Amino acid sequence: MMKQVKFQNAIRTATLSAGLFLSASAFAQQITVKGHVVDETGEPVIGASVKVVGGKSGAVTDIDGNFSIAADKKATLEITYIGYEPLKVVAGQNLKIQLKNTSTTLNDVVVIGYGVAKKNDLTGSVTALKPDEKNHALVTSAQEMMQGKIAGVNVTTNNGGPGGGASIRIRGGSSLNASNDPLIVIDGMALDNQGVKGAPNGLGMVNPNDIESFTVLKDASATAIYGSRGSNGVIIITTKKGRGNQKPQVSYSGNVSMSMLANKYDVLNGDEYRNFVKSYYGEDSDAAKLLGTANTDWQDEIYRTAISTDHNVTVQGGLKNMPYRASLGYTDQNGILKGGNYQRYTASVNLSPSFFKDHLKFNINGKFMHAKSKYANNDAVGAALRMDPTQPVKADGFDNYNGYFAWTDKADPAKYPSHITNIANTNAPSNPVALLNEKDDRANSNDFLGNIEADYKIHGFEDLRIHANLSGDWASGKQTTIMADWGPSNFYWGNTGFIKESKRNLQLSTYVQYYKDFAKTQHIDVMGGYEWGHIKYWGNKLYHDMASEYGKTAEEIAAMTDKSYNSYSKDKWEQESYLVSFYGRLNYIAFDRYMFTATVRRDGSSRFKEHWATFPAFALGWKINEESFLKNTSWLDELKLRLGYGKTGQQDGIGNYNYFQSYNDNTKTTNGRYPMAGVGDGGGVMYRPDAYNEELKWETTSTYNVGLDFSVLRDRVRGSVDYYYRKTTDLLNDAYVPTGSNFRNKVKSNIGSLENKGLEASLTVRPIQTTDWQVEVTGNFTYNKNEITELTGSNSIVKTGGIDAGTGNECQAQIVGKPANSFYVYQQVYGVDGKPIEGVFVDRNGDGKIGEEDRYAYKSPAAPYLAGLAVRAQYKNWDFGFNFRGSFGNYVFNDRLAGYSNTEKRYDSSFACLQNSTPTSVANNWRTYNWVLSDYYVQNASFVKLDNITLGYSFQDLFKTAAYKGLSGRVYLTATNVATITKYDGQDPEVFGGIDNSIYPRPFSMTLGVNINF
Question: Which of 864, 840, 799 is nearest to 935 (CA)?
């Protein structure tokens, strides 16, 4: 559990009340008591209640933690604030009062599925996290704020590109080919995992500065309330709101970042490559004659130092019954790969009115995002490593290629005009700078997420409440791509076109909840509800390759009737799905220490022939510290045992129409039509059937969980330990079927089962808590073992994991008794010098020959061990923090290195070109690509990363005058992606999926930022 750090910023002012006080009866002994209230870190507590014991006078601390109240000289004042121990002091002059933390607000009340609960009343495995306001750099996606901070949760950024998203796994993957992504719920709205062009990351539409908290539901007793969407865990995001009776408060946060390439990939430089070619092929060889005289570092040519900025303005406050909050945000992120840029504009509004003495409450949210992306050509990343370093960026004689050096081939006079005598050699490495500049690839997207939530406590029967939430997500995006006619990708013809995508996600949730305390020691909470959801996707695309019409827009090309083009492609699609659900939950608490929770959900999905399925869950909790033999133990704050079991489902990532017959026409491309006379223009329309499986059904995951929560020494030490076992049956995967039995050789099928079992632990220690010094250390650890336990039918081994090295190779497989996506390779034999011997593998089946049967499952891309460590220290106004993150036991197939394995092909006589190599490949001296499926290329990618370091200084009363309270805020400096400790030979060991080819490198960044409260 992360400590809620308090300081003067926009979040703190959300609790601000007007500095008003009520006067007590005036008499001679009264004095005006002034005081200053701070927390254990020395930060002011805003909104604390100050009352005269036995009297009517009261006050509330202001933005600086100050208060003023009239009281008798001998009166006793009581100061209270949620999450802190109440404190009584004798009235006096200039009081300085420090409140002691009992638990953070998130510990007191946690947002769960369809409601809230007290943290110490939870029976499921739930972790609540407040974003770290003091140790982060430029954050464009909410996933990054959880990275390394929650046990059992692994967040991997997809790459280092601007605006890039991240992949999240909670307690390992529960599926082979369906989605392993958790369900994301924002303010009650369940998002789908499919983005649109320009906004592939659904969470990217939420400004991270608007997020109040994350709640992660990990076991089935917590996630079963979401039924068929809960197998991979649930992440509930709550955004910030205003508070009633609060004066308007304006705040600004902004930063500027400088990013650069963290480290280069090790390839030969110009002189090393010249020496290699001459020594390997000969001084007078054809290969040597192709060498240039330059010394070009192609990585230097494509990467840059990128400057990015982020700005946010917030206004919040509240009338008596109308809290409000509004924010505007602007992000301008440049990528380190030249030409890449991501700009995001966000706006959010929240209104939380209440009526009839808080019996009727509304929560109205609106979030809008407009994003503009300019994509750099990622092909340049791999090309920069393969391109001959002895060649220049530009050279004479390449006018048709905009002056860029290119490996060329003879042009076919039947296809090209007479002035085109040579064309770009598509079998040779392309000039990476030309690749960057030939492509103009842009996307614009819009996304609006809104909801209206109503909660009504029935008058005269306040134990019964009715809740309804109507929400929707509307998104659209268009990506336009233009490839220059001089570029190596499509020389002479060029390319222009677009893809448009739109989606609409509508959801209505309603439930009735009854809660009652009775017999003084019993509490019951019953909830039942209904939910309806409809998701619709639609879009179209149009692409033309053409020379004579190059420069026209895609829309202009679409309107053309002639055929002065080389090829033509168009498509249009529309899909939808429905989900209808009934759900309920029962919580029962006896004697404030025995807890029972039962949950059930019945889902009806349009994605299966058998639409309906039921997902139950049960959990028990025991507050051991409330028993008589421990109740008076002063050092023990909490000791709670949790037991849980439940079933959840999976329906994402499998398509909408896989269980019935469907057809596609062949009108998408002109060269795909059949020459049928009398039909249209002579291009006959044919319909082809899609593969389908009528027996397709839900994946179902059963989970058992045992957990222990503890807190000692007045919450100076707090932690939790969980053991879990998860088994998924009816695994969904693309599996081979007998020839002629279906319309494809691979069909989506239920093929088996897998299990995950593991241990996770988290611990927070506050070793120093004084007026000037505060230190907090938080760590988490996760162990997860993943194993396929069954594959049905003929699917004893299902190959997957395609690689670039060689032709048509797959380096992974699903195998019973092994982790999902295990590497499926040959066992390499090494010489006495320690080098791998080309083509020599272990004959594992002993038949005297090396064949497919000698491949074996070797290691897994998923790390069995994960760990995170965060340290925060504060001395007066200064703060310092850093985050470490570790991944242990994960392996990566080094596809980059395997692609260089054939030293003989550094000069390809068939295509008259040269390509670079690595020192390792030169030393190994292999001469074919036939043996790339070797466990030699499966490398240990365990790592420890220092994710960030932050130094900050908080200030207050800046420019303070008699008429103005002054500015408060903080300035900070953050370094991101600081260091990586690893044995992996590649550029970065953190590779999602375990196959390392041309990933956009994650940069090292420095960020200077400021937060100001006006």
Answer: 840
